[in-house]
């Protein structure tokens, strides 16, 4: 089992969600986050004074999938979230040790 | 010309008794309205304008300061302020205490066609907004107790005497200073006091390297809109009558605000490639502050020039004070109000002239040239500047001995809302 964590541009959320639904992803968690990468934030202007704002608003998606599907899901996210401009985001894949569905007590693959 | 000086004279007259005056219903209705408009400038206009400009951890502290000043200034105006400003004229520096406690005012008292109580109340709203403007200079770091004490004593020692000098029959008014609605009385005093306070208190922690952007520009724009509307009462009401002077004062006020906005917006658009919302509303305040002293004396085209120059000069003044000199006048009170007030007071001498073609105003006094008037205006600005700076400085130093002026570094980091008021503006 893998946990796929994707940081994407906020306005790409709907595209990514639609793409994931089309490849059979049944659930995901969405969080509004802030951060920066090579993009290095952005400038804001107040009364003629420029401020460098380090943190840019982003969306974080978390999706737990079986290992055999992880690669396809990652490709789907990358394809849907790509704009070819700076700040498109990143996808991280990490192993999951255990999953429990709270309602039924099912574990691991049965719980996904 | 007669109308011009009638308006000026009216400002000084209410200190005298007018047994023969007859109440004018139209004038009274307008000044009642104007009084409400000027109070709206502070509560809620300035509150929202300033509240949005500070960081979210200090929003309540600013709203609290505006509200508390409205309360203490009202009471002090009743007790002594009004009398020091508009009481008996003796030496021309401070009014006598014959009007203390509004003791000569009854419901039948009439001055210049309006109830004397209404004149006192209208002037009270000016006495409220002036110290409230100053809080922008020391926002986000001054202890509430020190601010409260400072505002109260400053009103009595600075605002009321200078009002007497200019409007209460004092020496500047006698010299013929043109200040229709408060360029020197309100804007220069508030701007200079804010600058001195910012220097005495020192910059906010992290200034100028740490970004301290406004936390809610939506609030700021709403407050700015209320200030614009309220300014109609400020300048239009200063005619003290429902007449052509009031109408023209409102017209030039409106034009100057619009021109100031466009000028500031253009400066940023040219320099940074984008017109900012804070820029357009700041230009509006600069245009309004600058036209204020001139509003009863200039014509519409003069107002256009005054507004445009306000937008450009106040913009550069903001850079100079904050970015070059690194003085943390937090909400730019001096560059916008102080510089605007000085500029408008000086330009009043020029655009009041009736000899400028389409840029003419209502005319200078008989035999007075633009140069003569300019000298008087410059004396008014210089004396107001110097007196305000010296008294404000001494006052802050004396108060600083009694109570700490600033919050501690830890309190400043945590925010004044929680540390001084045990409340938070937002609990989302």
UniProtKB/TrEMBL annotation, chain A:
Transmembrane segments: none annotated. SUPFAM superfamilies: GlnB-like. It comes from the Bacteria. GO terms for molecular function: ATP binding; enzyme regulator activity. The modification O-UMP-tyrosine is found at residue 51. GO terms for biological process: regulation of nitrogen utilization. InterPro entries: N-reg_PII, N-reg_PII-like_a/b, N-reg_PII/ATP_PRibTrfase_C, N-reg_PII_CS, N-reg_PII_urydylation_site. GO terms for cellular component: cytosol. PROSITE patterns: PII_GLNB_CTER (PS00638), PII_GLNB_DOM (PS51343), PII_GLNB_UMP (PS00496). Belongs to the P(II) protein family. This is P-II family nitrogen regulator. It comes from Echinimonas agarilytica.
UniProtKB/TrEMBL annotation, chain B:
Residues 29-426 form the Ammonium transporter AmtB-like domain. Keywords: Ammonia transport, Membrane, Signal, Transmembrane, Transmembrane helix, Transport. It is a multi-pass membrane protein. GO terms for cellular component: plasma membrane. InterPro entries: Ammonium/urea_transptr, Ammonium_transpt, Ammonium_transpt_CS, NH4_transpt_AmtB-like_dom. One of its GO terms (molecular function) is ammonium channel activity. Residues 1-19 form the signal peptide. It is found in: Cell membrane; Membrane. Belongs to the ammonia transporter channel (TC 1.A.11.2) family. This is Ammonium transporter. It comes from Echinimonas agarilytica. The lineage of its organism: Bacteria, Pseudomonadati, Pseudomonadota, Gammaproteobacteria, Alteromonadales.
